[in-house]
Amino acid sequence: MRAPTKLALYAAALAAVFAISFGAGRVLVPGSAVDDWNHRPTATDHGTTEPKGDESGHR
């Protein structure tokens, strides 16, 4: 087999695996879990909020 053919088959297999995984995730993961994940509070790197006022970092 030539390289372009192998790459095309690899790309097709990769796309099929992605599509199957995406479909399985939509079926197996409940919508409430997705909503909870999207609305959870996020923490910054050090657990503090951004400073108010001049947010450029210069003091």
| Helical coverage, percent range | 55-70%
SSE string: HH
Shape: flat
- By DSSP, the count of extended strands is 0
> What would you report as the Rg, rounded to the nearest angstrom?
22 Å
Report how far the terminal alpha carbons are from each other: 63 Å
Percent strand equals: under 5%
Q: What's the overall average pLDDT, rounded?
A: 84
Largest sheet: none
Poorly predicted ranges: none
List keywords for this structure.
mainly alpha, 59 residues, 0% strand, DUF2613 domain-containing protein, flat
Describe this entry's structure for a reader.
It is built from two helices and no strands. It is flat. The termini are far apart. It has 59 residues and is mainly α. The protein has helices at residues 3-28, 31-38.
